[in-house]
Design a protein that fits this description.
The chain is α/β, with parallel strands linked by helices. It is about 45% helix and about 15% strand. The strands form four sheets. Strands 2-1-3-4-5 form a five-stranded parallel sheet, with helices on both faces. It has a five-stranded parallel sheet with strand order 7-8-11-6-12. It has a two-stranded antiparallel sheet with strand order 9-10. InterPro entries: AAA+_ATPase, AAA_lid_NorR, CheY-like_superfamily, Homeodomain-like_sf, HTH_Fis, P-loop_NTPase, Sig_transdc_resp-reg_receiver, Sigma_54_int. It is found in: Cytoplasm. Pfam families: AAA_lid_14, HTH_8, Response_reg, Sigma54_activat.
């Protein structure tokens, strides 16, 4: 069984053959290169996992070995490099260490010396990879340390998340900014059959069309000014896994059309390329916009909407699940206290009351920012009201409605409100109201409720 793949770059044919024979006898897979240019082309065109270590001579005819090292490290920052040098060029070897080489050996070298260096480099690389995996596991979006709730309202959302995770359907996560849409997307991935593959995310609103397209689809060298190397996009990186498209409602019509092709055809063409690449990706999209309204008003493609909205997960704002404010605040307090090594035993009752009375327009993200600030400014062993920037911002009592109105008006307004909150999804509206779909249709007709979210005369439904 092959242990690892070694790339050898040396202009001396005898050295290449000697090393190739030695490494193959030790069950390594070997590729050899006579000049730096061909090596760099190989690194540029391959994938991240197809080479485990590079053995590089510092004296090359076509390109200085140090320059080859610098470029190789730009293409593959984590690839271990062992440099070879003649006795009289030790300074070059030391310089190579400064630019990221793992170690160097001087020619001529005994078999045991070079094999020992290779084994040590591979062992260190393995430890570093395992460390990165452990860190990703600890920081993954669905970690029990990150999803905090006690409310029944959010428990329903989380149970639905775990249920739909087992399918392979695309999911649309709706909710205000800061409600935790990426956490839910991560929970979908890490509780799905795709959990062993990658979970990647991109904020579609933060990038221009050109940059978003390049990040998603990748590009080949020379595709545009500045494209000096071939770059894989997130679609290729997420193959077999899950891609989270945050703020999908802000994507332009041109990018929408290209995304639709990926979802329908399961392939894509990198920028500047002519050949399509096949991918198998589960998409989780999120937005704080009413996509049904965006479809109706022509700003979002109807066919893409239905492709992404196979299952909808609607996240409630923090003000609608006040029971979660205290456990979330305590979680963030412990998190940031650990980070700055400060001893805090809790939040005072007065501070908790202040947190509960605030409406949190920025939702969980705003609460986290408030608690980070509170931990930094706290001087005692408790978070006190003085360090919370919320004084004078408590929620005003809800206005009293003294109108004397008929019961049917109350019912009509309630049905309209639930329809809006579900994006005019009739089945979900009927389920929330506790009535049958047939009864809902009858009441919509009876009260002449305008279906603002309908498309081509038919209410949105899945």
């Amino acid at each position: 069984m092959l242990k690892a793949r070694i790339l050898i770059c040396d202009d001396e044919e005898g050295i290449r053959r000697y090393l190739q024979k030695m490494f193959q006898a030790s069950e390594f897979e070997v590729e050899t290169f006579a000049e730096g240019t061909s090596l760099l082309q190989r690194l540029e065109g391959g994938s991240d996992g197809d080479a485990d270590i590079l053995v590089l001579d510092v004296r090359m005819p076509d390109m200085d070995g140090i320059e080859v090292l610098k470029r190789a490290k730009k293409l593959r920052p984590t690839l271990p490099v062992v440099v070879m040098t003649a006795f009289g060029t030790i300074d070059s070897a030391v310089e190579a260490i400064k630019f990221g080489a793992y170690d160097y050996v001087t020619k001529p070298f005994p078999k045991e010396k070079i094999l020992g260096v290779i084994e040590n480099a591979l062992e260190l690389d393995l430890l570093l990879k395992e460390n990165r995996v452990l860190k990703e596991e600890l920081n993954r979006p669905d970690s029990p340390d990150n999803i905090i709730f006690v409310s029944d309202k959010f428990r329903e959302v989380y149970e639905l998340t775990l249920q739909v995770a087992q399918s392979d359907a695309n999911i649309l996560v709706l909710g205000e900014s800061g409600t935790g849409k990426e956490l839910i997307a991560g929970a979908v991935h890490y509780n799905s059959p795709r959990r062993s593959r990658r979970f990647l995310s991109i904020n579609c609103a933060a990038l221009s069309d050109t940059l978003l397209e390049s990040q998603l689809f990748g590009h080949v060298r020379g595709a545009f000014t500045g494209a000096i190397t071939t770059q894989k996009g997130l679609l290729e990186e997420a193959d077999g896994g899950t891609l989270f498209l945050d703020e999908i409602g802000d994507v332009s019509a041109a990018v929408q059309a290209k995304l639709l092709r990926v979802i329908q055809e399961r392939d894509f063409i990198p920028v500047g390329a002519t050949k399509a690449k096949s991918v198998d990706i589960r998409f989780v999209a999120a937005t704080n916009k009413n996509l049904a309204k965006e479809v109706q008003e022509g700003r979002f493609r109807e066919d893409l909407y239905y492709r992404l909205n196979v299952i909808t997960i609607d996240l409630p704002p923090l003000r609608e699940r006040p029971e979660d404010i205290e456990p979330l605040a305590e979680h963030f307090m412990r998190k940031y206290a650990r980070r700055i090594k400060k001893e805090l035993r809790g939040i005072s009752p007065e501070a908790l009351q202040l947190l509960r009375s605030y409406r949190w327009p920025g939702n969980v993200r705003e609460l986290e920012n408030v608690m980070e600030r509170a931990v930094i400014l706290s001087r005692g062993d408790q978070v006190l009201p003085a360090v919370l920037p919320l004084r004078g911002k408590e929620s005003p009592p809800p206005p009293r409605d003294n109108r004397l109105i008929p019961l049917e008006t109350v019912e009509r307004e309630h049905i309209e409100r639930v329809l809006r909150q579900t994006g005019y999804h009739k089945s979900r509206t009927a389920e929330i109201l506790g009535i049958s779909r047939k009864t809902l249709d009858r009441k919509i007709a009876e009260y002449a409720i305008a279906l603002a979210g309908h498309a081509r005369g038919t209410a949105l439904d899945s």
